[in-house]
Amino acid sequence: xxxxxxxxxxxxxxxxxxxxxxxxxxxxxxxxxxxxxxxxxxxxxxxxxxxxxxxxxxxxxxxxxxxxxxxxxxxxxxxxxxxxxxxxxxxxxxxxxxxxxxxxxxxxxxxxxxxxxxxxxxxxxxxxxxxxxxxxxxxxxxxxxxxxxxxxxxxxxxxxxxxxxxxxxxxxxxxxxxxxxxxxxxxxxxxxxxxxxxxxxxxxxxxxxxxxxxxxxxxxxxxxxxxxxxxxxxxxxxxxxxxxxxxxxxxxxxxxxxxxxxxxxxxxxxxxxxxxxxxxxxxxxxxxxxxxxxxxxxxxxxxxxxxxxxxxxxxxxxxxxxxxxxxxxxxxxxxxxxxxxxxxxxxxxxxxxxxxxxxxxxxxxxxxxxxxxxxxxxxxxxxxxxxxxxxxxxxxxxxxxxxxxxxxxxxxxxxxxxxxxxxxxxxxxxxxxxxxxxxxxxxxxxxxxxxxxxxxxxxxxxxxxxxxxxxxxxxxxxxxxxxxxxxxxxxxxxxxxxxxxxxxxxxxxxxxxxxxxxxxxxxxxxxxxxxxxxxxxxxxxxxxxxxxxxxxxxxxxxxxxxxxxxxxxxxxxxxxxxxxxxxxxxxxxxxxxxxxxxxxxxxxxxxxxxxxxxxxxxxxxxxxxxxxxxxxxxxxxxxxxxxxxxxxxxxxxxxxxxxxxxxxxxxxxxxxxxxxxxxxxxxxxxxxxxxxxxxxxxxxxxxx
Length: 704
Prior knowledge:
Elements: H1 9-25, H2 45-55, H3 61-67, H4 72-81, H5 110-137, H6 141-151, H7 165-178, H8 183-191, H9 194-199, H10 213-223, H11 231-240, E1 244-247, E2 253-256, E3 266-268, E4 271-273, H12 277-286, H13 288-302, H14 310-322, H15 327-336, H16 353-364, H17 374-381, H18 403-418, H19 426-437, H20 439-457, E5 461-471, E6 485-496, E7 498-510, E8 513-519, E9 523-524, E10 534-538, H21 543-550, H22 555-565, H23 568-576, H24 579-583, H25 587-602, H26 605-608, E11 617-621, H27 629-635, H28 658-668, H29 675-678, H30 692-697
Parallel strand pairs: 5-11
Antiparallel strand pairs: 1-2, 3-4, 5-6, 6-7, 7-8, 7-9, 8-10
Helix pairs in contact: 4-15, 5-7, 5-16, 7-8, 10-11, 13-14, 13-15, 14-15, 23-25
């Protein structure tokens, strides 16, 4: 292939081709949807290639051979039954580990903070590579199609969630579990995803001061579509969403802040009541446009971006609604529609970069040795995994037809055709295949080792011990208008036999005086075993008040409270070591105050009686995951599949050459043209040279 040959002609030709596909559809007439006799027709090669391109990523040899001769009805049933809830490629171990202290990263010195951010970026890139590998290797490509659809529907982006790689990963794996269940379940779960709540600013949505970001996108992009709601609906929906937040201290988990929720009467879609978020979801699901919006979006994703037969869509939407929004029912009815099987809709969807790259690799069944570069290749084409450009998600249709993206596609094809980075050695291919099919058991073994490691670390200690501590936010000045307050978090804290992944403590000064407050959303798993939402200890509390507050606490928890109260001076010294202290001098007032209160609290009987001579307060400032090699390896993603190892496309042993591929293709097609295998519109290649290079470089290869 000559460099630059298709730079502009390809864009022009592809644009004309897309228009042509569109023109071929409009004005066509179809039989009634009720007539299902077409589903008894057996699949030929062209039908099977079309089916695989719509329900997966490109045709693939073994799947194609298995499909040909089956009825359309059976093919649909089997592909839906094969949808998975668990990925085929084991995820990196860090995905299921505790979240690092994002809440305290800005209190780290610059060098440590940069390392923290770099580690999160490494996790993100590791996650991108993992998903790329899963799409390339899965034996259930429809699963990945659905996960990709919902990921681009309930949008969040790594660039917009403050380096929360774990939140992005958790959203992905939660969507994977429910991708083929009910829209109700998917919607509720997505609205409780920390990545979504952060990305759309719902942490700032509280009673008396609603933030409309999530409320607006919920109606416009997630459920009803533009023009099917009023501005009042947005405001009232946002009020219903108040209080749904993220607990950064509690492992980046969903937290329902009842104090921030607006319990007042709201009017949504003309219906008045004290609507909660659950009520809001029910109202949305009852709205007639919800079923229509989701059905049309599914249709554009699986059938055609240019043709939307209203009668058929209405029929499918009604079945979707009556099934209580069962996604499998929606998908089944779309795939069973007469329009789905019509030759006139083939080639009416422009391939996204993900379609183009993985459809090519899966069809070729080759294993690129540089597969670890594929997420970057996708990014250069305009589709970065886990990082769509905005809340509307990645573009579609002709938006993919740009000079830059077409140049990148041509470069990708040129590299594939050159076979420069293809693993050809049978010895290496066999080794790769053995390694990857055994990876799952290795992952489980590593996970058990880490669990054992954690159990060894947790030993009974005297006094108060924590790995490290950080200020959570810069706090409020003692002389400011708002109530003075600072918050510190202790990481991996232990007292006796009680362990906290995170123990958050607030120091507050108000009209009631100085107090130490424990809030349940600041502790992981809980501040106290009785799960009290909040508990404050005032300097002014007498012994009887303290005894009442201690009544429901165990011995370790009482000692923990006394240790905090009796170590305020040491806590002040920890604060003075942080980055916030260097930048905000008013924190020195807090350090001095804590030293003063330290002396006063030590005189309290309930403190002195619990803190004995042999106990101690042992904490360092900072965050040092390097203390545990296993934890550090997980943090950096080093437990994952090694770089440069290649893939097993479609879960099958890779082929070693194009010659081997052509030989296998010839067994399933009576035509000598490779286009019947690689394209949903083989007629477009009728006058073209029958070469792999010509087919992969043809404008028609960019549609499906």
